[in-house]
Write a structure and sequence with these properties.
26% of the residues lie in helices and 27% in strands. A 9-stranded mixed sheet has the order 3-2-12-11-13-14-15-16-17, sandwiched between helices. Helix 5 links the parallel strand 11 and strand 12.
């Protein structure tokens, strides 16, 4: 095994082929040499601001070539990139910054940094690294630290247990080929896009990141750059599939070897459509958490023989247990437990505690079963978390904001089926209808939370939703509305008034 640091790897790639493209986004492109030089120059700036080995650097930048400059600069000084959404409402962003306590904040505003050193963007103070002293070769103890909302509505950091190292003698992960091309339409503050993009970069790939997802632009990027890998979530797959056929089939996708999809359940009809379009050998699904205790992978070919499965373990082990913690046999549904089997931890939380049991097993809160062939099939989430468009929304967080509104007496946030996004965030709100409207409530939440967390539908009711202990049965509320959907308008079961109220600017 031959290990090199992430920072050294970028320098070596630049030396081997300086003019090969490294990162593209829209009209901007950086060659390997440009990326390495800009990152080295920004790394000097970070060091000058006091960033040292093991520190965190919060990166609040949109999808762009600058995002990669910022991440690479952090690695070059041995720091951990801590990405967040660029346009988070100030309260959310400041809560994350407080939790991470980074040495520097890149992006957002100086006020959001909370008195910490702040840089408006990733532009270094000195162009190019030629005139700068060579940086010492260091290894970031953790190569990433993305965020995830906790079940209490508070954010948490998931700090990787892996250092910033590449094994040059190893096989590229995620079915990458050396010097390939990845099209990434996902947001770089989510773990999947971070992992796929950065690993592609480390193996000499050209990362073509879209400023934001666009169905036709994704296909156009695959054709234009002769990409061999694309990262998708089922919401993206649905929107691509629903393009007019003459548009969808206009683009040459013959270079594409692998279309990965993950992050949310894929409807069987959609999976079948993509398998029929691209061929089963090119459609590959992965299930796993940011925590990295284990993962499963299934190709389209395997899926046709195990319909509905998310695959067999590609890393780690799986155990299914009943409510009493006893392991159940194949075919019986229970809680899914994962174990990495590695000598060191795959992650650590900041701001949360893991759900663990004896023997190194951990749970992400999923239900499922394993068949006789070892293939995993997932059911509903155990917790009330809502998966919408590939993003996690925790009801407690949205409810806390709704309760800030003076007209709201109680509320419950649940997920309801949505053909486009998998689930939509639906708010059931106890309030006087003459005092507030659904549109006013969505606007109120939109000022305080990220867009994907804003309820897309609001239902006003006139009775308490919580008992005297402050408890609410979200599963019952959801079941009532699912039953009511076949008998009448939403809100019927509670005598409330409902309506589709899209989030401002939502897609």
């Amino acid at each position: 095994m031959t290990y090199v640091s992430f920072g050294r790897r970028l320098t070596d790639l630049a030396a081997a082929a300086p003019d090969r493209p490294a990162v593209s986004c829209g009209e901007q492109r950086l060659t390997r040499r440009q990326l390495d030089e800009l990152a080295a120059a920004l790394a000097h700036d970070l060091a000058g601001l006091g960033v040292t080995l093991g520190d965190m650097v919060t990166i609040a930048l949109p999808n762009s070539v600058d995002w990669f400059v910022a991440a690479a600069a952090a690695w070059k000084v041995g720091a951990t990139p801590q990405p967040v959404a660029a346009h988070l409402p100030a309260p959310e962003l400041r809560a994350i910054v407080e939790l991470a306590d980074p040495a520097v904040v890149l992006g957002a505003t100086a006020e959001d940094a909370g008195g910490r050193p702040w840089l408006a963007d990733a532009r270094p103070s000195a162009e190019g690294s030629g005139a700068l002293a060579e940086l010492p070769d260091v290894v970031a103890p953790a190569w990433k630290a993305p965020t995830s909302g906790g079940s209490t509505g508070r954010p948490k950091l998931i700090v990787s247990g892996d250092p910033g190292l590449v094994d040059l003698d190893g096989t590229p992960p995620l079915l990458f080929q050396r010097d390939g091309c990845l099209v990434m339409p996902g947001p770089l503050y989510h773990n999947g896009p971070i992992v796929w993009s950065c690993q592609a970069l480390m193996w000499g790939g050209h990362v073509v990141v879209l400023p934001r997802f666009d169905a036709e632009a994704t296909l156009a990027a695959i054709e234009a750059h002769r990409a061999d890998v694309v990262y998708l979530v089922p919401t993206m797959m649905k929107r691509i599939w629903r393009l007019p056929e003459e548009v969808r089939t206009r683009y040459d996708l013959s270079s594409l070897r692998v279309a990965w999809h993950l992050a949310e359940p894929c409807p069987p009809w959609l999976k079948e459509a993509w398998i029929g379009w691209l061929g089963p050998e090119r459609v590959v699904e992965l299930y796993g958490g940011t925590e990295g205790q284990g993962s499963t992978v299934i190709t389209g070919t395997e899926w046709l023989g195990h319909r509905g499965s998310v695959g067999r373990p590609s890393f780690g082990e799986i155990m299914i247990c009943d409510a009493d913690g006893a392991e159940v046999p194949a075919g019986v549904t229970g809680e899914v437990w994962l174990r990495s089997g590695r000598p060191r931890e795959t992650y650590r939380y900041v701001g949360a505690e893991a759900r663990q049991r004896e023997g190194g097993w951990e749970s992400l809160g999923d239900n499922g079963y394993v068949d006789e062939d070892g293939y995993l099939y997932l059911g509903d989430r155990i917790a009330d978390m809502i998966l919408t468009g590939g993003a996690n929304v925790y009801p407690a967080e949205v409810e806390a904001v709704l309760l800030e509104h003076p007209a709201v007496r109680s509320c419950a946030v649940i997920g309801l089926p949505d053909e486009d996004r998998g689930n939509r965030v639906h708010a059931v709100v106890e309030a006087t209808t003459s005092a507030v409207t659904g549109a006013e409530l969505t606007a109120f939440v939109a000022e305080r939370l990220a867009r994907y967390k804003v309820p897309r539908t609001v239902e006003l009711v006139d009775r308490p939703l919580r008992d005297d202990a402050g408890k609410v049965r979200r599963s019952e509320l959801r079941a009532q509305r699912l039953a009511g959907a076949t008998a009448g308008p939403a809100g019927g079961p509670d005598g409330g008034s409902g309506g589709d109220v899209p989030a401002p600017g939502g897609t």
